[in-house]
């Protein structure tokens, strides 16, 4: 699959087809290359440890040869006693050398682990930072199409899999490679025949790995995909638990969860079964090689063509040769999980980012603050999917524009286009005569302040949440003044710690109306040129709403504002009221003029007040 197709798959479905094993390994290697000096240091200490580790069996074999030769000479009279003429001085020297070699090898293995842990931590930090930066660059269109749980699964579960596996994989890979090469070299220096027998069993082990690995890789990929779906379902139902209880959907939701959990269980145990077969099969291959070296080596000793110490060394080397194979079998499981998770992370990093097209339209000399010129828009490509077909509007500086209409009329869509969360499909939106596509997104949005119907607060103090909306350094005096304007200061001071009160993760320790007041305070402190209010007072009582309307009248003074409203009583003072239906402007005018027309707005207004009076 080409990269463009992968991006398309990831962007439109939220799932990534896992089929690029070597491409994923290459991309992980690129992250390692950013830390190449650290990697070279780890490789150096690993090679040094391996050199001492692979030399020690041959040196230790000399001790066995010294003892064997002494015993082979038979008991002799030495210093008046009958004993075997063993050269204990030479034996001590050999043992001391072996002890020093083991100590040096262990020391360098420790240094390998120390340096490698730092290297792996820095690599994971780089990937995490790239994911965080990517999230900031993702288009709203892309984010809207991916379940929150799926993104969380990639950012948390998949990242943890890579973090846990990366260090172990690199350590085992370095050890396995260096030990295998060093062991093979030492074996051939002693006996080519025995080396061939030992290596043959190693090749058998690699064949076993090559057969089983692709099958288990598919199951691990399915396991991670199902885990992401399961996490998304859990997150969705956790957020909607009140609705589930209110409509008695607990049993139905639990049944769906059990089905999804069973699918995940099936994929998980199959993946673990296949990967679990590697170790016992590798042990069989190891035992075959060990037995062959022992039998043929024993015959060579009996024939006098090979010292006993060399056979002992070959048996140790045969055992050492199996260690890389065993580590490889264990490493395959880790690599499968790591690459599966890494592919999902890289698929996230390859998703569509916010476009920054340039309109190349000339700047108009105009007194209008904003101009909507034959705007067309659809969430999906194609003329048949257009939600707005020909929207036109001119907004003077300081005007309050109210946007009303039935559900699905395009009110919130218009707000999304102003903020450039979505790009227009046709026509243009101009700010002070310049197409908004020719503005840098950050510059454009710094000139706007927004309060949405769905409040968003993060875990932190009220002080931090309010100042989140500021585009500059804001002192506490300015913060309190903004809170007073938004009528939030009173309830904040009644909280246990005032402005230092911690808001929990879902902001459930304050009421919905209080959350709305904080988001309005955030808009006040941003001091925007253009104010966007999308049902900003929907969760506030009538008395507080009147106070907020008065405060917003002060805030709107000298500023252009767009107000999306369902309660028409809140927009009587609007300079223009835009009545939308299916993305088209039905009526435009002031509150009084629209009532006098006795059209769609008149019917909508009368229906609200007739309902209120009943």
Automatic annotation (TrEMBL):
Entries under PROSITE patterns matching the protein = ABC_TM1F, ABC_TRANSPORTER_2
Q: Does the keyword ATP-binding apply?
A: yes
InterPro entries this protein is in?
Answer: AAA+_ATPase, ABC1_TM_dom, ABC1_TM_sf, ABC_transporter-like_ATP-bd, P-loop_NTPase, Type_1_exporter
Task: State the annotated membrane topology for this chain.
Answer: Multi-pass membrane protein
List the keywords (alphabetical).
ATP-binding, Cell membrane, Membrane, Nucleotide-binding, Transmembrane, Transmembrane helix, Transport
Superkingdom of the source species: Bacteria
Transmembrane regions listed in the UniProt entry: 37-55, 90-111, 194-213
Instruction: Using the record's annotation, list all stretches that form the ABC transmembrane type-1 domain.
Output: 40-337
UniProt GO molecular function: ABC-type oligopeptide transporter activity; ATP binding; ATP hydrolysis activity
Q: A Pfam family name for this chain?
A: ABC_tran
User: GO CC: one term?
Assistant: plasma membrane
Localization recorded for this chain is:
Cell membrane
Which segments constitute the ABC transporter domain?
370-607
The record, for PANTHER family, names: ATP-BINDING CASSETTE SUB-FAMILY B MEMBER 10, MITOCHONDRIAL (PTHR43394:SF1), ATP-DEPENDENT PERMEASE MDL1, MITOCHONDRIAL (PTHR43394)
Query: What name goes with this protein?
Result: ATP-binding cassette, subfamily B
Naturally occurring in which organism (per UniProt): Aerococcus suis
Its lineage opens with: Bacteria, Bacillati, Bacillota, Bacilli, Lactobacillales
């Amino acid at each position: 699959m080409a990269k463009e197709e992968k991006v398309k798959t990831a962007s439109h479905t939220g799932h990534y087809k896992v089929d690029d094993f070597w491409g994923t390994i290459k991309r992980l290697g690129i992250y390692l290359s950013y830390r190449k000096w650290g990697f070279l240091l780890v490789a150096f200490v690993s090679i040094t440890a391996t050199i001492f580790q692979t030399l020690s069996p041959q040196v230790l074999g000399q001790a066995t040869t010294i003892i064997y030769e002494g015993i082979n000479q038979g008991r002799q009279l030495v210093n008046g006693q009958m004993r075997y003429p063993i050269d204990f001085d030479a034996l001590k020297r050999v043992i001391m050398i072996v002890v020093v070699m083991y100590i040096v090898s262990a020391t360098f293995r420790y240094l390998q682990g120390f340096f490698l842990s730092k290297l792996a931590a820095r690599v994971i930090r780089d990937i995490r930072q790239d994911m965080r930066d990517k999230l900031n660059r993702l288009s709203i269109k892309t984010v809207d199409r991916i379940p929150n749980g799926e993104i969380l699964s990639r950012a948390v579960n998949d990242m943890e899999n890579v973090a846990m596996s990366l260090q172990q994989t690199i350590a085992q890979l370095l050890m396995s490679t260096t030990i295998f090469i060093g062991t093979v070299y030492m074996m051939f220096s002693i006996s080519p025949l025995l080396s061939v027998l030992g290596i043959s069993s190693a090749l058998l082990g690699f064949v076993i790995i090559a057969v089983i690995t692709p099958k288990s890789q598919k199951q691990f990929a399915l396991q991670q995909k199902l885990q992401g779906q399961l996490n998304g379902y859990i997150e969705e139902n956790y957020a909607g638990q009140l609705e589930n209880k209110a409509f008695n959907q607990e049993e139905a939701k639990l049944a769906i969860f059990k089905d999804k959990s069973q699918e995940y269980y099936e994929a998980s145990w199959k993946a673990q079964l296949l990967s679990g077969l590697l170790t016992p099969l590798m042990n069989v291959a190891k035992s075959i090689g060990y037995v062959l070296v022992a039998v043929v080596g024993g015959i060579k000793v009996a024939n006098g063509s090979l010292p006993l110490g060399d056979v002992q060394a070959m048996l140790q080397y045969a055992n050492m040769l199996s260690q890389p194979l065993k580590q490889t079998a264990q490493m395959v499981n880790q690599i499968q999980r790591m690459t599966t998770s890494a592919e999902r992370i890289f698929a996230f990093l390859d998703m569509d980012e916010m476009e920054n097209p340039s309109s190349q339209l000339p700047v108009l000399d105009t007194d209008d603050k904003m101009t909507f010129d034959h705007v067309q828009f659809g969430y999906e490509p194609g003329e048949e999917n257009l939600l707005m077909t020909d929207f036109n509007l001119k907004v003077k500086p300081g005007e309050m524009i109210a946007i009303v209409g039935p559900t699905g009329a395009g009110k919130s869509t218009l707000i999304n286009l102003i903020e450039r969360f979505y790009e227009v499909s046709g026509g243009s939106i101009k700010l002070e005569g310049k197409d908004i596509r020719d503005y840098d997104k950050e510059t454009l949005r710094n000139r706007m302040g927004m309060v949405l119907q769905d409040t968003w607060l993060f875990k932190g103090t009220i002080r931090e949440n309010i100042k989140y909306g500021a585009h500059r350094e804001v002192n506490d005096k300015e913060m309190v003044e903004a809170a007073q304007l938004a009528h939030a200061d009173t309830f904040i001071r009644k909280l246990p710690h005032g402005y230092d009160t911690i808001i929990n993760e879902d902001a459930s320790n304050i009421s919905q109306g209080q959350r709305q007041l904080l988001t309005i305070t955030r808009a006040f402190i941003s001091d925007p040129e253009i104010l966007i209010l999308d049902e900003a007072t929907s969760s506030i009582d009538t008395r507080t709403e009147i106070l907020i309307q008065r405060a917003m009248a002060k805030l709107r003074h000298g500023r252009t504002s767009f107000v999306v409203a369902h309660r028409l009583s809140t927009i009587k003072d609007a300079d223009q009221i835009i009545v939308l239906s299916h993305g088209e402007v039905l009526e435009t005018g002031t509150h009084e003029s629209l009532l006098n027309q006795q059209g769609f707005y008149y019917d909508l207004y009368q229906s609200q007040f007739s309902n209120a009076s009943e």
